[in-house]
Amino acid sequence: MSATTALHLAAEIGGPPQYDARHYVELARLAERGALDFVTLGDSFARPGLDALAVLSRVAPATRRIGLVPTVTTTHTEPFHVSSAVATLDWVSRGRAGWNAEVSTTEAEARLFDRRSAAPAAELWREAGETADVSARLWDSWEDGAEIRDVATGRFIDRDKLHHVDFEGATFTVRGPAIVPRPPQGHPVTVIDGTGGPSQEAAARHADVVLVRATAPEQAAGIRADVRRRAAAYGRHPDSLRVLVALTVDLGDAETAPEPGLESGPPLAAGGSYYRGGPVDLAELIARWHRAGAVDGFHLTPITPERDLERIVNGTVALLQHRSLFRTFYPGGTLREHLGLARPANRYALAEGRA
What we know:
By secondary structure, the protein is of the alpha/beta class. The chain is 36% helix and 17% strand. The chain has eleven helices and 13 strands. The strands form three sheets. An eight-stranded parallel barrel has the order 1-2-3-4-9-10-11-13, surrounded by seven helices. Strands 5-6 form a two-stranded antiparallel ribbon. Strands 7-8 form a two-stranded antiparallel ribbon.
């Protein structure tokens, strides 16, 4: 990766549960003022709070350019519904949607649904990969232009451009086609945490954005190279992925120097990397790692969203923009355009020579 490759930045806007949508709208708007690629909103069956995908569907009409990426748990959830919900978010945001695929591994969460017992993580991530696969097929099951909407003839759909996916996985089957037309982006952006373990293969095979954790640029560069190698083994072009380092940040004391190394912060539930310091030093860290070719960018999780996101945008990001290391405006309107990713061709149109 050359030093001139575009830097990508994203931020988490979750925290303690909030039940007023304005809280999330304001945080997303703040991130948008900094021209961040996207915001994420974490979710799981183990925590109280609003549904992340529904919340970001509310945030969508209150924002214009920022990408919106909710966590969606694929375990205990019907893949057809996952595909429809994410496609709907892409429509209501006019092409700014993504989804962060996650799994549910505990027996306590399994009992909430009472469908099956908890399963090993490796099995659940294989299922998550199949969910990502069938979702992409369902998004393609309507070709572009399938809707006719001709009142005079009474034709709504060109049936030649509608397709059954006929997918059979290890734990589910889906016939299709989708009930939602093909999303504006073709495929909303798929995000997977591929730091290690069972999620690695799903990330390499299906993700557009892979989140990783590292405590030094050399380690990040090695992980990034491994993700790209795995993707190539699945027949994907490595440049079709963006690898972002996931970093939890505490900017509570701007005068406090960052701790030596990133591994010395408090223990994190996800085993992630931790940074404590000021916005200027964080900008220096981001610039140094990116110039070294170690990463495509960073996904930042503020310890205190209301406080730290403001310091990220008005401090860290502003400094990177001043040094011409990060954009000052959005060059396009979709999340794929923010990330420099092409809109995927429709597999069925390609097969029938219409693409």
